[in-house]
Amino acid sequence: MKNIIPLLAIVIITGLFAVGVFFLFYGEDSSPYEFLSDASVQKENSANILNLHSHPQQGESWIVSFQTQGRADLKIVPDDQATIEDDEFVALYCGEEQRTPQIMEGDAIYYKNWECNGKAQVIHYTKKAGKHALRFEFGTQIMYAYNSAAWHNPAWTKRKKITIDNTNVDSDLANFPLYVDITSDSDIGGSAQADGDDILFTSDDGITQLPHEEESFSVTEGSATGHYWVNVPLIYSSTTTDIYVYYGNSNAADSQQAEKVWDSNYKGVWHMTSNGGTEYDSSKSGEDLTETSGTIPTATGKIGNARSFASADTEYLYHADGGSTEINGADQPVTVSAWITRASDSGAIEAVVAKWDSVSNNRSYMLAVDEFECVSGYLSANGISYAKAVGITVIPTDSSWQYLVMVYDDTTVSAYLNGAVNLKLNENPLSYNSGIFNGTATFMIGARGGSATGYWNGLIDEARVANDARTAAEVKFEYNNMAEADNELTWAEAETVENPINIIIK
After folding, report:
1. CA–CA distance from 182 to each of 54, 152, 248 (Å)?
2. Which is it for strands 53-54 and 141-147: parallel, antiparallel or unpaired?
3. Residue 203: alpha-carbon gap to chain centroid
């Protein structure tokens, strides 16, 4: 018995020494034999997004592929309201096996104890293209997948999304010349060329360039101000419409295409920006206007600058008979529009835009404020007698801006004030189907022909003549786009050409 006790002690000491040597060589977290450790079965849950960035267009599928390791609850959550509204969940797959998750509040997808040994996919239907994000939560891990419009060209380092509000869009508008106002924008001012040559616009796909016209652009102390016109192929009435403005390319040449902003029906578009001298036409017609002998100065306009007319100076802008504004015939429609302010009341007809000579009986069409101080649209079929659609609201002489429009659609003449027909019983709209006289009157802005009477006293801006009948929906949105403080536009934060990173939080 006495010999056994020392022997046991030696065995115990030898065993402890062997264990110590084992841990010395292999460490406490390692084992040469799998049965000595459960590390192989206790793998940490992890996940990975395989395609961080996608660029589906409206009507296409947004497919995000991902992998997971281990088992944990899976949540896929739209990260903002735009993603909730614009992307609709379709299916969730592990390999080729379709799985059915729970749909939670805010269109979040939830799958308890998710485990998938292959590639998984979640599919959404893109109801509207744009900038969207999905947040993936797998156990304690968080990742993001992004859906955004593709980038036009990496040479342009920045862009902003512009969303067109549809509240005042009563029907879809095709090839609409959208006014885009850049106001005290330090981001554009800090990145764009000083003359704005690198500024361009694209459709909602981020790629297709849209024709634009720069009316003015400047950078003062790093802050940009600009007035632009962009031809948007389609503005939706049922939902908002997105476009992008790109900038930040120091080597870009000027890419504006003013003549393509205004569709072929426009026969004259005058922004009234020239400080004396010729007033240039932005439409395809190239119908530039000549100033009478004096100088018609510029002043702060509704959009950029305007021309300041003084009736006492008997001055106006004009071009001779003929040319693009020669709109006449039995079935020829016409739309005439302008922003105006009135400085006084003459007690007589005050012409805004006119091809109208009452002295020699060469009356064709005229937009004016009549002797009762109301918006009026005049048409004559024979140069002598005429029809007149007249509103009921007195145009004030307080120098406030008013938007006047006359529309003839071959059956009716309508006079609009600030985006709506200024209704007057039996007089506006006015039934008329006799057409427009083919006269020889001089085309004028700020007066009417013959001995040049009816001089305007106040400002005129954005004068236009079109050989078609603009719809009520077009006139309404034209007004709101130019009149509202936000121009019916919402600007997103600037994006850079670099892709956003995949954020992982553990």
Report:
1. 29, 20, 15
2. parallel
3. 8
- Cα separation, 329 vs 285, in Å, equals 19
Confidence class of residue 453 from pLDDT cuts 50, 70 and 90? confident
- Token couple for 25: 């060589």
What is the average pLDDT across 486-494?
A: 96
Element (H, E) at 99: strand 97-99
Specify the 3-state DSSP secondary structure of 209.
Answer: strand
For 220, residues 6+ apart whose C-beta sits below 8 A from its C-beta are 189
Distance CA 216, CA 505 (A): 47
Q: Would you state the pLDDT for residue 43?
A: 55
Q: What is the mean pLDDT of the chain?
A: 90
Strand ranges in 380-499 using DSSP code E only, listed in sequence order: 387-390, 402-408, 412-417, 420-421, 430-431, 443-445, 458-466, 489-491, 495-496
Joined together, the tokens standing for residue 93 give: 């797959």
Do the bridges between strand 209-210 and strand 489-491 make them parallel or antiparallel, or are there none, so unpaired? unpaired
Residues 342-370: pLDDT tens digits?
A: 999 999 999 999 999 998 999 999 999 99
- Single pTM value for the model: 0.80
Nearest Cα neighbor of 239 from 79, 82, 470 is 82
Quickly state the pLDDT bin for 75 (edges 50, 70, 90). Answer: very high
- Give dist(CA 201, CA 367) in Å, integer: 33
Residues in Cβ contact with 11 at an 8 Å cutoff, skipping those fewer than 6 apart: none
Query: Alpha helices of 182-270 — where are they, by DSSP H?
Result: 186-191, 258-261
Residue 157 half-sphere exposure toward CB, CA atoms < 13 A? 10
Using DSSP's 3-state secondary structure scheme, residue 241 falls into strand
**Residue 496 C-alpha from the chain's centroid:** 18
Lookup: tokens for 132: 């969207």
Rg of the chain, C-alpha, whole Å = 35
Of 469, 437, 425, 411, nearest to 358 by C-alpha is 437
Amino acid identity of 81?
Answer: Q
